[in-house]
Specification:
Blueprint: E1 2-6, E2 9-12, E3 17-18, E4 39-42, E5 44-45, E6 48-49, E7 61-64, E8 73-75, E9 95-103, E10 106-110, E11 115-120, H1 122-129, E12 136-141, E13 160-161, H2 165-171, E14 176-179, H3 194-200, E15 211-214, E16 225-233, E17 240-251
Parallel strand pairs: 9-12, 11-13, 12-14, 14-15
Antiparallel strand pairs: 1-2, 2-17, 3-17, 4-7, 5-6, 8-15, 8-17, 9-16, 10-11, 16-17
Helix pairs in contact: 1-2
Length: 252
């Protein structure tokens, strides 16, 4: 099926580009923030067996996982506020204009902690976006290998975004930021979460409609450029929810 954006451009909904990671209870599942693997197990209680292979009539499994630590997830400002806000109330529509960009984080020596930090700076995003306007930005970092689908990021000091990137994102009209890292902020930043606070303008001018999606994975075969983004979100009443962002190529 073709979905027309305007008289000369359309997207083909039969060729979606899924950029989410699959949740599983195996070592292949990515992890961050000190969480163990997800648990997926059949209910076995009061004579009821929720596993067909074990003699039950149906498969009926409990799933225990953490949205922030176990894969692709979308979060709202409720992630950093004392008040409880649900990401399920942040998205009022689900299709957005989007730009996919690929960036190699800049490495520098952090003398205070005796480690090398990897940072995405404002000028790198400026170079890629070139003054365009879009509702969403998807950032793919390099190197971009298959291993990223299965990493345990805990205590690895992953790359992160410099807070000054907010300025260019605001200039371009970005409401939804997607990235293939476990966080937009440094893993250990003393609890500042500077980028999160600046993006959502918490506490001075809270932006309830903005979202951040972390731990996506974009295959190398998907080229940088303009797309339509569909945000599929599990309707959880929580600050974050597992999500399935999907890109659609734009044709003329």
């Amino acid at each position: 099926m073709k979905f027309y954006i305007d008289p000369i451009r359309f997207i083909d909904t039969k060729n979606p580009l899924d950029i989410s990671l699959v949740l599983s209870n195996t070592e292949a599942n990515p992890r961050a923030w000190y969480v163990d693997l997800p648990v997926i197990e059949a209910v076995n209680s009061n004579g009821f067996m929720g596993s067909v292979i074990d003699g039950g009539n149906v498969n009926f499994r409990n799933i225990f996982f953490n949205p922030h630590g176990h894969g692709t997830h979308t979060e709202c400002l409720g992630h950093i506020t004392p008040e409880v806000y649900s990401v399920n109330n942040s998205l009022k529509s689900y299709f957005f204009t989007a730009e996919l960009i690929t960036i190699e984080p800049t490495s520098f020596y952090n003398k205070e902690e005796n480690v090398y930090d990897k940072v995405i700076y404002q000028e790198q995003i400026v170079e890629k976006l070139k003054g365009k306007n879009m509702e969403a930005v998807v950032i793919r970092t390099t190197p971009n290998n298959e291993e990223k689908k299965h990493l345990n990021y805990t205590e690895t000091n992953p790359a992160f975004l410099d807070v000054e990137c907010i300025e260019i994102l605001n200039e371009c009209g970005v409401q939804h930021l997607l990235i293939d890292l476990p966080s937009v902020d440094r893993e250990n930043d003393g609890g500042k979460l500077a980028f999160h606070h600046a993006f959502w303008q918490v506490p001075d001018n809270p932006q309830f409609e903005k979202t951040i999606t972390e731990l996506v994975y974009i295959e190398n075969s998907i080229l940088d450029g303009e797309y339509i983004l569909e945000m599929q979100l599990a309707p959880f009443n929580n600050d974050a929810s597992p999500s399935r962002p999907v890109l659609y190529s734009i044709s003329k």
